[in-house]
From TrEMBL:
UniProt source species: Carassius auratus (Goldfish)
Name of the gene encoding the protein in the UniProt record: LOC113105464
Protein name: CD48 antigen-like isoform X2
GO CC aspect terms: cell-cell junction; membrane
TM annotation in the entry: 238-261
Taxonomic placement: Eukaryota, Metazoa, Chordata, Craniata, Vertebrata
InterPro entries (UniProt xref): CD2/SLAM_rcpt (IPR015631), Ig-like_dom (IPR007110), Ig-like_dom_sf (IPR036179), Ig-like_fold (IPR013783), Ig_sub (IPR003599), Ig_V-set (IPR013106)
Keyword Membrane: yes
Length: 269
């Protein structure tokens, strides 16, 4: 009678145990991310433009359902179900929404400041994976092109003196003056006036000719520039008394600003 032998179960080595534990952790993390991932994003848009709210979907995912909503009471505004786009009737975004069928991204056209809020998106993939994201949209007023006014232009002894005032609309707008490259005269900018968001430039150059100055308004990532070409001619000259008085005041202001600029420059050295 032959003896029956029993094989002892193989025991895992410490190395194999660590490898299996690591695989289990990685698999658990993947499942958790796919089943209930959540993220938040902040984006900034400007009135009159279009903004794209990212759904956060991975390119490898096959989306079966997308649902965009706003407010705490979950007001649905747009969605995607089995490849069909659904745009809900809602007065705030009427006629301005569209969804990317592949990514689930939401585009809002012609945004306004009232569109600033948190947008929620829920995704469901074809294999049952779920994901939720929030996008906080902030819409700011678009920067407008500044206006330029001529406050002085006078021709004295074949030398032209001008003063230009640049005015911006809106708050927290920075203004700056620059002449074209061919300008070979002298110029200096005054101190920005915060009361009416304006900046004056004083310039002088020889000859009866025209020169071009650029006023640039900037706020955040926005920049707008307006040009003005000005010059002096015999017709722009005033009566002698007015010319002498006006030019004296202009030269006094010009020299004062120049001395102030040199003082600040030397002080900073």
């Amino acid at each position: 009678m032959s003896a029956i032998t029993r094989e002892e179960p193989r025991r895992l080595t410490p190395t194999n145990q660590r490898a299996m534990s690591l695989c289990g952790v990685v698999l658990l993390c993947i499942v958790c991310i796919r089943q209930a991932s959540s993220s938040e994003e902040d984006i900034t848009g400007y009135s009159g433009q279009s903004v794209v709210l990212k759904s956060g979907a991975d390119r490898s995912w096959s989306l079966s359902r997308v649902q965009w909503s706003i407010h705490q009471n979950t007001t649905f505004i747009a969605g995607l179900k089995n490849g069909e786009v659904v745009i809900y009737t809602f007065w705030r975004h009427e006629g301005r929404l569209e969804i990317n069928i592949e990514t689930g991204d939401l585009t809002i056209r012609n945004v306004t400041v009232d569109d600033s809020m948190t947008y929620n998106v829920a995704l469901v993939t074809s294999d049952g994976g779920r994901s939720q994201s929030k996008v906080r949209l902030t819409v700011r007023e678009s920067l407008k092109t500044p206006d330029i006014q001529t406050t002085l232009h006078s021709l004295i002894d074949n030398k032209c003196y001008i003063a230009l005032k640049c005015i911006a609309s809106g708050q927290n707008v920075n203004l700056s003056w620059t002449p074209d490259d061919e300008f070979d005269g002298s110029y200096i900018s005054g101190t920005p006036n915060s009361a009416d968001s304006s900046l004056v430039v004083f310039a002088s150059f020889s000859g009866n000719r025209n020169i071009t100055f650029n006023c640039t308004a900037s706020s955040g990532q926005q920049t707008m520039t307006r040009q003005m070409t000005v010059g002096c001619s015999a017709s722009s000259s005033f009566p002698v008394v007015a010319v002498v008085a006006g030019s004296s005041v202009f030269l006094l202001i010009f020299i004062s600003l120049l001395l102030l600029w040199r003082y600040k420059k030397n002080k900073g050295l």
